Automatic annotation (TrEMBL):
GO terms for molecular function: oxidoreductase activity. InterPro entries: FAD/NAD-bd_sf, FAD/NAD-binding_dom, Ferredoxin-NADP_redctase_2. This is FAD/NAD(P)-binding domain-containing protein. It comes from marine sediment metagenome. PANTHER family: THIOREDOXIN REDUCTASE 1-RELATED-RELATED. The lineage of its organism: unclassified sequences, metagenomes, ecological metagenomes. The keyword Oxidoreductase applies. Signal peptide: none annotated. Residues 16-119 form the FAD/NAD(P)-binding domain. Keywords: Flavoprotein, Oxidoreductase. Pfam families: Pyr_redox_2 (PF07992).
Length: 135
């Protein structure tokens, strides 16, 4: 279920769409998660019609997709259409000394391990940049 059309990585959206054991509800809002000790149901509301639906479920998974937190740099660099920061393979933004990493960038596969690796790369590149300035 999503308030908007799904915005995650295309490969993940395709995988979800192909799954035969789930239904995707877009433009719905969760009204209530029901159960005692364990989830037993969920009440959702269609944002267009206002119609409510009761679904019997045994689990709720929260979040696919994201809105990058790129507000800080939007006046400095041109963001892509997803409002991500475009970077090179060295985490460079195109502005000397400004590096970016993690889910705010246009790197695919928004996963923790990928973000951590990109953070390490950006740190190393920033360190090299500062060393060059000092000499």
């Amino acid at each position: 279920m999503s308030l908007t059309p799904l915005t995650g990585d295309a490969i993940l959206i395709d995988k979800l769409s192909a799954a035969k054991n789930l239904t995707i509800f877009t433009e719905y809002q969760t009204e209530k998660i029901e159960g005692q000790g364990f989830v037993s149901g969920i009440l959702i509301r269609d944002l267009k019609s206002g119609e409510q639906k009761q679904l019997d479920v045994t689990g709720v998974f929260i979040e696919i997709g994201l809105v990058p937190n790129s507000e800080l740099v939007k006046e400095l660099i041109e963001l892509n259409k997803q409002e991500e920061v475009p970077i090179s393979c060295s985490c460079e933004t195109g502005i000397p000394g400004l590096y970016a990493a993690g889910d705010v960038t246009d790197v695919p596969e928004k996963q923790i391990v990928v973000a951590a690796g990109e953070g390490a790369k950006a740190t190393l590149q920033a360190h090299r940049y500062l060393q060059r300035l000092a000499t």
